[in-house]
Amino acid sequence: MGVRANDRTGLSALLDHWAEAAQPWTVRTRARLGAAWRAACCSARETAAPEFLRSAAERLAARLPHRRSLAVKILLVGIVFAVVPVIVYDRFDEADSEKTTLLLKAAREQGRLIATYLEPTLREGPSSLPRIEGALQPLSSENLNIRVLFRPSAAIGNSGFYYVGASPPQSIGYLKSELSKLIGLGVLARLSSSCHRNQTVGIRHAVGHGPEQLITAITPVAVFDGCWLILTSYSQAEFLESSSIGRPYWQAPEIQFASLLYFGAAVFIIIVLLRIRRSLRAFRSTAIAIGRGHSDKSFAAQNPNPDLTDVAEEFDAMVRRIGLLSFSVERSPIAVAIADSAWQLEYTNPAYEALAGRSRDELLGHDLRETVFDSLSDDAWDEICRRVTGGDTWQGELRTQSRGGRIRWTEVSLYCLAARRGGTERFVCIQEDVSERKRILQDLVAAKDRAESLNRMKSNFVARMSHEFRTPLNAILGFSEVISKQVLGPCSEPRYVEYAGHVHSSGTHLLSLINDVLDLSKLESGKETLDPEPLDLSMLIAEAVVLVTPDAEKAGVALDVDDRLEGRPVTGDRRALKQVLLNLLSNGVRYTPAGGRVAVTTEARDGEVRLRVSDTGCGIEESEIPRLCEPYERAGTAYVRKTQGTGLGLPIVKRLVELHKGTFRIDSALGEGTTVEIVLPGQPAAAAPRLAIA
Predict the structure, then answer these.
(1) 102 with 164: CB under 8 angstroms?
(2) Where would you tag: which of 91, 160, 204, 642 has the fewest CB atoms within 10 A of its CB?
(3) Is 532-681 assigned to CATH 3.30.565.10?
(4) CA 550 to mean position of chain CA atoms
(5) What tens digit of pLDDT does each residue of 350-375 get?
(6) Does domain 440-523 have CATH number 1.20.120?
(7) Which of 357, 462, 359 is nearest to 410 (CA)?
(8) CB 609 within 8 Å of CB 535
(9) Segment 215-253, tens digit of pLDDT
(10) Angle, in degrees to the nearest 10, between helices 574-590 and 649-659
């Protein structure tokens, strides 16, 4: 049972008196300790504590200084551990003091559990302490009006005594069900109202023999005002020795040892928590300083707790990374700005301020669109906002104008930082001034256009002049051939015939050069068109070999053909592919010494046709191969310089092969020869006719 709410005054007086008894403490300490005792009682029995105990704890909190509240709470926890379970019993009415006081005890008689009672007599004992004497008597079986005034709320011991008051004195009887609930719970004694305040009462009896005598006793901690009784778990009859009976509770050696132990534990906990509190304060101050831009602060230097060394080092490493990132952004030539969810600028780096032509104070709080996207229409800006808020990154080039009127081209990236831990989203805008790069690009485009225009003019000029050269050249070739062959009759001077042959040979070379220039001009101008058709590549190779054979025999070079196509056709332009074959065979014969060999190999593999023309000529260095694919470029070997050539054959071959969607590759080694490989798309094989099965 709890204490009734109307007993607020009595409990307060009791606690205040208990605090006064703890001499030689100072008055201030006693006042706080009395309040601490109230809070301890409330904490020990929070579920059953009355309202006035909770109010006493509140008064305690109001008395203690705020900055020491944590330490005091820990001290109170130690006190509670030392005194729990604290048991506060119900208070007697004033009328109860006149009623008969009994001590009840369970006993066995012939193996049967019975109830006995003791009607105590208060007498003066040793050291002027009162003692109770009396003989145990079995309760009568009469159904008398027995009222249990209170019962303990926790086990006190195994003595089996209980306090019971009955009115009138002769109405002592069987307790029935009430007694069965009390048996084995503990001992409680309420003496008479003659017990004075601050008097510690010892209840004991001389050790006797026989079940009719009181054979055990208890020592309550204190009886105050004849009304209140506060016991602890250490107030057990079996625990206390005879030397402890009659002494105050706090003078018991066991209690003093336990109190010192709990007090030491409380002090240790206070010290640990204070060290942690200092570390947390250092962490808080460092975090605030970093948030205000002081990235040079160190938590490890201010941390007094060695147990948090790892945390301090990791925190400082994080701060260094943040400082490095902040330094990089501040010194970056790339403009960076951060806007809030309403597109209002929250941060700008110096590069952004220089790009906008405004100071940071002028930019912060302004709309991002005004400083970057002012040249866009409302629809375009709404589309950008929709994409960015949806999680996409927007990139593009914008034309902006600074406050001074300078026009700039900037490359802009805009993306969204998602909100975290209940925050709001942020938008990051990164700008790079590309005005100079754009100007250079425009200059390059203009220069390219001019170069292409000049190249077209050159090609047109060369083509026009080549046509003009071919007309008189054909006449020269024709007349020189007539004279060299003496078609109109024998010539009187043989040297004239020889001279005419030289003229015809030189004219033929010049005509070949003019034809190559015309072909290259067409290819460069894009005017060369193909007339693709299914072709028999083997037949084209045979025709080209026949045309090159006279020059090969004259140079003493053998021609070999290894054809493995087996009649598989290719799709291409007849004139263009024949020109490719003639150029490759002519180069092989021209740059191969006498006694050498030029071989043509063909094969079909993986749906493609592969053509290789290899020779055993002088070869070229690997570093010169890319240069030979450019017009008018020739190898630098001495043998090549002695032969005639324009440097147009391989460039024409490369461009014609690329027009056929083929590939062109050269493998060569100086002094070993050269191999040119061409890969062309093959003609899909015709499906075999299906046979009808009857």
Answers:
(1) yes
(2) 642
(3) yes
(4) 77
(5) 888 888 878 888 888 888 888 788 77
(6) no
(7) 357
(8) no
(9) 223 333 333 222 223 222 223 333 333 343 344 445 556
(10) 150
